[in-house]
């Protein structure tokens, strides 16, 4: 009969340690959440709009990272090294074309509407989510490439729209810290 008391003690010890671990992880998660929230608010200068823009930017980068990881096995590392050079050149070309095409057009277009920057940010995020969903359907088909191009183009459009939206969200105290324009060189 010495087996039952030792088994009971072992089960009781395991239960106590599990409960202690669960409590400490919950408390640690709450503590980390409070600290991240405080740092996020401090980094945004206490401005609600800037905090929301920082959160949106974090979500955007998280989505970009997930898409890049998902494409890593299909497009980027699927070809032998000799054939990968042309693929890398095409990738660089594809990532630069949307930025070069969209940058001059996006600014005046966003200024034309009242909340144009918000609409542009929302449209690019929703479009990227939709194209990521399409990419999951056509992972081994030809539809993957146009969807990947669309995600890259909308990612660049998001960058342009975000750059246009940041000055409207910046706290007023940050305006004092900006450097004055450099004087023109006279020779």
UniProtKB/TrEMBL annotation:
Query: Which of UniProt's keywords are assigned here?
Result: Membrane, Transmembrane, Transmembrane helix
Is this entry keyworded Membrane? yes
Membrane-spanning residues where?
58-81, 88-110, 130-154
**Which domain of life, per UniProt?**
Bacteria
Protein name per UniProt: Major facilitator superfamily (MFS) profile domain-containing protein
Organism, as annotated: Phytohabitans suffuscus
Q: What is the lineage of its organism?
A: Bacteria, Bacillati, Actinomycetota, Actinomycetes, Micromonosporales
């Amino acid at each position: 009969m010495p087996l039952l008391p030792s088994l009971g003690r072992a089960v009781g010890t395991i239960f106590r340690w599990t409960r202690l671990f669960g409590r400490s992880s919950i408390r640690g998660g709450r503590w980390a959440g409070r600290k991240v929230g405080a740092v996020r608010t401090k980094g945004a200068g206490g401005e609600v709009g800037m905090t929301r823009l920082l959160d949106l930017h974090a979500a955007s980068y998280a989505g970009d990272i997930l898409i890049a990881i998902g494409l890593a096995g299909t497009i980027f590392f699927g070809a032998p090294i000799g054939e990968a050079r042309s693929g890398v050149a095409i990738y660089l070309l594809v990532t630069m074309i949307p930025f070069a095409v969209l940058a001059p057009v996006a600014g005046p277009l966003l200024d034309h509407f009242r909340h144009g920057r918000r609409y542009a940010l929302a449209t690019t995020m929703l479009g990227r989510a939709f194209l990521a969903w399409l990419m999951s359907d056509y992972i081994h088909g030809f539809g993957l490439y146009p969807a990947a191009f669309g995600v890259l183009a909308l990612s660049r459009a998001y960058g342009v729209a975000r750059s246009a939206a940041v000055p409207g969200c910046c706290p007023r105290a940050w305006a004092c810290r900006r450097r004055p324009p450099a004087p023109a060189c006279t020779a």
